[in-house]
Amino acid sequence: MPVTDQGVSHDRYQLIPRTLIFITRGESVLLLKGADHKRLWANRYNGVGGHVERGEDILTAARRELKEETGLVPADLQLVGTVTVDTGQETGIGLYVFKGTCLEGEPIPSQEGELEWVPVAEILRRELVEDLPVLLPRVLSHKPGEPPFSARYYYDSNDKLIVEFGN
Known about the structure:
Layout: E1 14-25, E2 28-34, E3 45-46, E4 48-51, H1 58-70, E5 78-85, E6 91-101, E7 113-119, H2 132-141, E8 149-155, E9 161-165
Parallel strand pairs: 1-6, 5-8
Antiparallel strand pairs: 1-2, 1-4, 2-3, 2-7, 5-6, 8-9
C-alpha cells in the first residue's frame, strides 16, 4: 500500500506518541521526582519516559528513554497499556505504558530529576503527578500475557483530569 493510501489528513484527530515506563524491584517501583527547573511536573513523582522520535517504534523509544534517564536495561519490558490523552485541541497525546523488572544495578543521576526506589506501600504518601494514583495500581497489577489496558484522559470544564478505563 503506498503512503498516499494511509488516510493521513490534517482534519483528523492526531496524537503525539510518548512512552511512560515503570520499573519494579521487589516491592518497590522506580519513580522520578521531577527536577525543580522542569516546566512540567516539577517536584512531583512519575514514571520515566518521553517522546517517541521519528524512525523509532514504541518499544525502541521506551528502551531508549529508560536507558537515557536511568541507565537501567530490564530484559522483560512489556507494553501494559495505552492512554489517549484528549487535550481538547486538534492534537492529543498517545501514551504507551510499559512495565519491567530490574533486579540489579542502580539508576544513574539524570537532569530530569531524582530517581528513587519507592516502596509500593509508600507511593500514595508522595506528591504524585495527577494520574498516578489511578494509573499505577493498574500497571502494577498487570500480569504477563494479559492484554494491555486502554484508557482515555480528558479534562472537564474546570480543567480537572478525568480518567476512564476501557473494558
